[in-house]
Design brief:
192 residues, alpha/beta, Rossmann fold, 6-stranded mixed sheet, 32% helix, globular
Amino acid sequence: MRAVIQFSGGRDSLALAYHMRALTPFVDVVMVDTGDMPLYAYENKALVKSLGFNKNLQLVRDLGFNVELVQTRSDDWRSRNGNPSGDNWIACCFHNIWMPMGEFVQQRGYRQVLRGTRRCDPHFHGVMPGDIVDGVLYTFPLWDWTDKQVNDYLGPLLPEAYRNDVNGMPDCLTCPVMEACGGKNREVWNAS
């Protein structure tokens, strides 16, 4: 069964990649770059516009995973549709993250998606562990891990903000919605 790790660049997907590293010959990694990710998420500030590589993504490449990058432009979508609000932010995330990721998975013929999503995550779960969507099985190997377990597992690889009790990293730094992903912590990632 062809499998892929959906990598966000945050601590949970980094922990998942390390957890699954014995499977590098059999599992690929894909990341959606919205064009508006926190600077921390990129390899370094100079490469933000030109390459779009994620700092943690390089660590994942170093583990031996085949890594693919799906590029979207959340700022283009918002210029056409307006900024999301607490009532409609899911539409923006759908068009800039979930739909492009789903299309990539289907086009490449993956049959299993592995995510670092955990039960205690404070944001929306579009699928649950064991769900099969369009013939693809969604598996969340870290589902029952606590924040402490993830932090301890990553040790020195843990991104600095998480050491200061930040929970979540926004997919789009300029998204005005506090409800979405790490929106309540946006200012921490702005300073990174």
